[in-house]
Amino acid sequence: MKTILHIALIAITAILITACAPSKRGGPGAEFGARRAVGINRPSSLLAAAREQLATQGCAKAAPAYRMVASYGEGYEIAQYELGACLLEMTGANDAETALFRQEGVFWLSRAAWAGDPRAQGKLAEALSGAPGFAASHIAPDPEAALMWSIIYMSNGARDTYALRPVPSPVSDHLKNVISEAASESAYAKAERFARVKMEAFVAPPMAQNTGGPQGRPEGRRRPPRRQIETARP
After folding, report:
1. Maximum CA extent, the chain
2. Residue 29 included in any domain
3. Which end of the chain is least crowded, N or C, by CB within 10 Å?
4. Is 130 left (phi over 0), alpha (psi -120 to 50) or beta?
5. How confident is the model at residue 222 (pLDDT cuts 50, 70, 90)?
């Protein structure tokens, strides 16, 4: 009888050790941990994952992750800029989808530009200019807006921090040739009145508290009885 009990205890101990042991690298537990590490509550990790996807698989694969990070608002203008620049290069299944990508790209670039990001400001100046080789496809040229952003971009002190180049000469020359005097004056006036507008930052709601009974068990449920080891009577 003692031998039977001893063998049973060894078996139970082995089962418990296996169940409680951490998952090996590459196993199901590790995969779950990796997914959790880049989850929606970890935007910095998600941004890193989006950049990796962009580098290895292209804009189309990276865009969904970029959209999640960009939606966090203030503090994630870099994601808004990178998403917007990405969408200006994406090609849809047809012209309608490509046009939607361009509209969305201008939206996210505008969000980052109004928040003060010089890269987004410079990108908008080029994309909206209509200048050959710089303007984005499927977007109607807007010389007044392009000139406004080029003025704001050139006066942005953060441009030197990123070592950004001036507005390309072909863009500046094109705007001078196509913009009217009235539109030019309007662009300068708007640039003079420019004030930053930041997207409200997303704040995650608090986690729901466990309302269960003692030891975290839901109310009304009883702890299941422990498995009893049946032994033969002597």
Report:
1. 109
2. no
3. C
4. left
5. low
The amino acid occupying position 200 is E
229 located within any domain: no
Q: Is 19 a member of any domain?
A: no
| Contact assessment for residue 229 and residue 8, using Cβ atoms and an 8 Å cutoff | yes
Residue 134 belongs to domain spanning: 42-196
Q: Residue 101 is part of a domain; what is its CATH number?
A: 1.25.40.10
Q: Is the pLDDT of residue 111 over 60?
A: yes
Between 171 and 229, name the one with better pLDDT: 171
Least confident segment among 108-122, 183-197, 217-231: 217-231
What span, in angstroms and rounded, lies between the C-alpha atoms of 112 and 114?
6
pLDDT at 12: 38
